[in-house]
Every structure is written in C-alpha cells, then in structure tokens.
Here is the input.
Amino acid sequence: MRLDGIPIAVKDLFCTKDVLTTAASHILDGFHPPYESTVTEKLWQAGAVMLGKTNLDEFAMGSSTTTSHYGPTENPWRRSGDNRPLVAGGSSGGSAAAVAAHAALGATGTDTGGSIRQPASFCGIVGLKPTYGRCSRWGVVAYASSLDHPGPLARTVRDAAILLGAMAGHDPKDSTSAPVPVPDFEKALTGDIRGLKVGIPKEYRADGMPAEIETLWQHGVEWLRAAGAEPVEISLPMTKYALATYYIIAPAEASSNLARYDGVKYGLRVAGDSLDEMYELTRAEGFGAEVKRRVLIGTYVLSAGYYDAYYLKAQKVRALIARDFAAAFENVDCLLTPTAPSAAFAIGEKQDDPIAMYLNDVFTVPANLAGLPAISVPSGLSADGLPLGLQIVGRAFDEEMVLRVGDVLERAAQFTHRPSFIAGER
Amino acid sequence: MALDKAAVAHIAALARIRLKEEELEPLAAELSHILTWVEQLAEVDTADAAPMTSVAAMRLPMRDDEVTDGNRRDEILANAPQAVRGFFAVPKVVE
Here is the structure.
C-alpha cells in the first residue's frame, strides 16, 4: 500500500479509538474515544502507522501552541546565537515541530485560521490546507465548523500531495464533505507552470510588514517568473476586514460547539450542589483563559440584541471576502503571498495582548473564510536564521494547482537548512 | 462596545462559566478591547451581500430515514464521569 509503515504523528484533536484524545484541554481529561476519525482511519487503511499524538493550542484556539493545558511546544529551530526557546506556531505546533525535527515523516493538522500553514512556516516545513469539504471533519474535535479544515504537514510538497491523497475523500458522516473524486495529487507535480497567471494581492503588502518578508515575497515572484509563470498584481479589497470577520464567526461557532462540555458525558467534572453549578464549576476549571475569552465573545455576539450587529454583519462581510477571491480567480490561476508576517517568536512573547497574537493569521485567515486550498512552502531564512514560508492559494478543489506551483516554488527556493534539534541527533 | 463587570457576569452566566469577582474587571477590559476592534466591520457596505452560512456550494445531502448505527450504550457511557445503571448521572434536579 501507498503508506505502508510510514510513521505519522496525529494532532491531538483527531479522535483515535481507545487512545487518549485531549484537544490539549483539561476539560477532556481521560477521554478515550470509542471511534476513529475518518481522516486517521483512511491513513491507517493506506498502511500508515500512528507514531503518537501531538500538542496543540487548547481546542486549536491559538497561533503559538502555548495555550495547551499540557504546556507549550518548543520549536526545533533557534535564532542564530540565541538559545531561547521559540514557539512552534499554532495551533498545529506539535505536529509541525515533530515533522521539522524529523521525528515523524508526516503529520495531520487542522487549519481554522492558519493553524497548519503558520506553524509549517515557523518550523520550515510544508503545510497544506485543502479545500473546505475535501477532508472529512468527522471525528475531529470541533472548534469552528464552517472554518475547520483537516490537512497534512510534511517535509516536502510531494509528501504533502501523497498524504492528502490518503486523507481526502467523500464521507457520508460529514454533511459538508464534498462528493467529488480524489485525483492523484502527486501527478500534479509536473514542474511545468509556464503560462500560468499568478496573482500578487496588493492589499497583503500590509503597513509595517518587515522588510525581510517583503524581500522573500519578491524572490517568490521572481522564481515563478523565471519558471515561465506570469505575475499579475491583483486587488482583494476586503482583505483588511478578514481578521475581524474571523474573530466574530470563529468564537460564535466555538461557543456553540463547546456547549457540549458540561461534565456529564465525558472528561472533567467538578462537583456542584445543583446541575447549573456543576456545569459552571466544570467549565470554569476545565477551560483555559483563551478558550474562555472566545466562548464569552461568541456568546455575546450571538446573544439577543447583538446578533445582527456582530454575527450577521460578519457573515455578510465573509460573503464579500469570498466574492473578492472569485473575482480574482477569473483572471489568475493562483495567488502568491507570504504565509505569516514574521518568523517564530519567543515563548511568552505576544501574550499580553490577544489582538497582537491574532495578527499572526493576517495572511492565512482569508483562505479559511473562503474555503480555498492553500499551501505554505519553506522559502528562506530570516536575518536571525529562522525559516519563513510563502503561501500559494488556489481555486476551490484545485489543490493540484496549489501543489504544482508549490513544488516549483520549493525547487527554486532550495530550502535545505536544518533546525538546531533533529530527533536522534545530539 | 465597552462591557462593564455586570455585562461580563451576564455573558458568563449564559455561557455557564463561573467567574470569580476579581476576574470580571480584567475580562471586561479584554473583551471590550476585542469587541471595539471587530467593530471596524461597521464601515463595510454590506447592503448587497447575503449572509454566508457555508462556503460549500452544495445542498445538504438527504438520506433514507433508517437506523445505521446503535446499541452502543456501554461504549458511550464508558467516558462518563458518573454513570449509574446504564444512565448518565447528574446532581438532583427535581426535589
């Protein structure tokens, strides 16, 4: 079989039959699912074996894997001449670190606002968020159901293509799973991008973008031009509203999805004198600070009197963001952007202001809102020696385009740098 | 929108999350900060936009109304913090 014996790390958001599944939350203490998620089941059917479960931000809410109940994940990379531990990005930080450190050949992740691509960028590996509906969400602990996308993290674009092929496919158990055939994604890696039009969205040239990110992006443009593609400047006018839209819709869906954690069916229970007190004490102790923040925001924006002003408004802006992409893809075949506005930061940085942390996802969130496939490919090093990724975004269900251009980008970038820590080396 | 302590306490009660008195003030500040930031959406003209409820351009599938799974009581109860005689057990609700 295609993946015979291949050791895969699994983000601990995927339910694995009889194997502890925590979502990195205290509230799921001791939860052993009696079922296997569709995506992991497909991997095992293809011959892969589970190496272990990996750390994440609690319920996938974060961009640093520091909100985990079990402590932060360290990035295997260090700044040159500086031994302080850095974040692995998030929320799939454990999966990204395991692949970057050569501990696993590949890993599963989920991406709700950048949670596969941003940690891939921070750890110098490839991360692919497929089209919404391409990989089943069944058996994946829900965060924001209209934005959650399972997908692979891997060392190369080719590995990501092979893993996606094993993970993808229609699943009747997920009503949003798309009944479309799964192509042989590896065959898309032809190396030929001659004549393709690559959109360069001018709104992504955000104020205050570090010069090294801008320079890397320019290199990307030149590499694709040299390979025969035609870069075209395009406009996605709604880009600046994507993050605010996300931080209404995602908490709203989260507050609804996380209502199930009540101390009755599974996980933690804190005793109370009444049923309501038991709920309140269980959720107070079981949820961490960021999860509480998002559940409270979500509860507020869905509450009577505020629903129209916040939630309904955000759903309308989301429609405009998707419309921007649809208009762009009438003229171009894919988009090229940076993956993240910075390299990995130190553990403990950006903790004081939630919005500073949210800004990590400024370039990745739009593709979640529109459900489009996007890949992050390691493309260079920052001045202090940390990996930086570039992102290719494609049309819905055109992962083949994203992979083909990503493969050409990978060849041109020749990213052969290695992290400070490799599993099994001293 | 600036939330005060009373508003945060009300939202927390709706969300069934017990907050300590000393948590209310800092949370009111944090949540107000986030809400003020997302309110930038008010400047977007959405007059001709329909709210987007799903990115998937497909209708929800229907299936025949027949039992496809079941008889898993013990598997389901295995994770319960407290289960008694084949049921989930909770604090007494009715006197």
